[in-house]
Write a structure and sequence with these properties.
Diaminopimelate decarboxylase, lyase, amino-acid biosynthesis, alpha/beta, 12 helices, TIM Barrel, pyridoxal phosphate, 8-stranded parallel beta barrel, 422 residues, binds pyridoxal-5'-phosphate, De-COase2_CS, 9-stranded mixed beta sheet, binds lysine, Lyase, Ornithine Decarboxylase, Chain A, domain 1
Length: 422
């Protein structure tokens, strides 16, 4: 017997009725729990730390408010994320700012807001930041992002730590050493330490151990005693039954042990360890709700079932061949099971949400729930085909609240202007 799907104590069908579909729903307690688990792992090991939620995974005012309540830090990668965090009155001292091409305006904004740490990616930014700080006679804590030469086993597009990457200072060519010297010599930059991020949706402990050890070695090579080593995020989550990730806290344990051992070997004091998890906090707690519409049956070949959303609200299958699993919101054990392809309503053949899954025979009007959609779904949504973006609902303790309203057709044309020059 399958059960009706409840999220945070509220039935998925009720949410679909109340707010319409497609709909993004988050189980807030689940996100809180993951944030607390990260913190307790560090606290149990008695090391200095910062857990900095990589908010690119899912950033809205309400999300920043929840993160603020849990007392963890955030990482932002744009003026837009920074502005949103400000609207949530997020403590700016607990914000770090990543990015490989921060604009002058974005850096000025970070300095105006008093962002705690800027994670400097390249020489252009190093010089620009130095100039801006000199003009203002201001000081700024920074980390230097290095490209550690570690390849993570994940999709090429979400792998970032390999040598041939656009992110961070290269090591082999001496760029990192030069950057460390330059930062240490600066009057306005306070170099706290090094940062690296090897990629996303990683299951393999070796990658995290590798990056942790490598950062200690690199600091030793640069003859620099870091106060902070930031090993990035990337902890893999379970999207389908085939995914068997270790709990993210196991990775944390490994990272701490690796840094302890490596610093001892180099006779270096233990630094604070910073991590930047995004997906592991927002991903498992998110659900996309859709209503089933049309179908196309190709005898002997395939059954296509279309829902009222698709690549506009979840681009990940089209972009990374990401796999998801769905469940029917209400039990339908009396129906026969069939293997179906779940597709969206967008004008693209690649608009596939699930390549193939066995589900009770779907009927128009059914509410279908896609699991583990909380990371990089809403945050990568688009208005392709001029479809309005769905609303976002938070559910906690049996209560629901819409925290982002559904876009309307009026919203779609809000910034459009009539062409007057003709
Ligand atoms: C610098 C940096 N930090 C943290 C993250 C978060 O990664 P994830 O969401 O996989 O934890 C990313 C994204 O891959 C990133 O580029
Ligand atoms: N957007 C990617 C991961 C983030 C990469 C950011 N460095 C995904 O959906 O998996």
């Amino acid at each position: 017997m399958t059960e009706r799907v409840e999220i945070g104590g509220v039935a998925a069908t009720e949410l679909a009725q109340q707010f319409g579909t497609p709909l993004y729903v988050y189980d807030v307690a689940q996100m809180r729990q993951q944030m607390r688990d990260f913190k307790s792992e560090f606290e149990a090991r008695g090391v200095d730390y910062a857990v900095s939620y990589a908010s690119k995974a899912f950033a809205t005012v309400a999300m920043y408010e929840v993160v603020k309540q849990e007392g963890i830090h955030i990482d932002v990668v744009s003026g837009g994320e920074l502005y949103t965090a400000k609207q949530a009155d997020f403590p700016m001292a607990h914000v770090s700012f990543n990015g490989n091409n921060k604009s002058v305006d974005e850096l000025e904004m970070a300095l105006d807001y008093g962002v705690g740490t800027i994670i400097v990616d390249n020489f252009y930014e190093l010089a620009l930041l130095e100039d801006l700080l000199a003009e203002r006679d201001q000081h700024q804590d920074i980390l230097l992002r290095v490209s550690p030469g570690i390849s993570a086993h994940t999709h090429e597009y979400i792998s970032t730590g390999q040598v041939d990457s656009k992110f961070g200072f290269d090591v082999d060519s001496g760029q990192m050493l030069t950057a460390v010297k330059q930062a240490l010599a600066s009057e306005h930059l306070n170099l706290l330490g090094l940062h690296a991020h090897i990629g996303s949706q990683i299951f393999d402990e070796a990658g995290f151990r590798g990056v942790a050890e490598r950062l200690v070695e690199l600091a030793a090579e640069a003859e620099f005693v870091p106060q902070v080593l930031n090993v990035g995020g990337g902890f893999g989550i379970r999207y389908t039954q085939e995914d068997q990730p270790l709990p993210a806290t196991t990775f944390i344990d490994d990272i701490i042990t690796s840094i302890e051992q490596a610093t001892q070997a180099h006779e270096m004091p233990m630094p604070a360890i910073w991590v930047e998890p995004g997906r592991s906090i927002a991903g498992p707690a998110g659900y996309n709700l859709y209503t089933v519409g049309s179908r196309k049956d190709l005898p002997g070949l395939r059954h296509y079932v279309a829902v009222d959303g698709g690549m506009g609200d979840n681009i990940r299958p089209a972009l990374y061949q990401a796999a998801y699993e769905a469940q029917l919101a209400e039990p339908a054990d009396d129906r026969p099971t069939e293997a179906v392809r779940i597709v969206g309503k967008y004008c693209e053949s690649g608009d596939i949400l699930i390549d193939e899954q066995n589900l009770p025979k779907l009927e128009a009007g059914d509410v279908l729930v896609l699991n583990a959609t909380g990371a990089y779904g809403y945050s990568m949504a688009s208005n392709y085909n001029r479809n309005p973006r769905p609303s976002v609902v938070f559910v906690e303790d049996g209560q629901e609240q819409e925290v982002v309203k559904r876009e309307t057709y009026q919203d779609l044309v809000r910034l459009d202007q009539h062409y007057d020059l003709a």
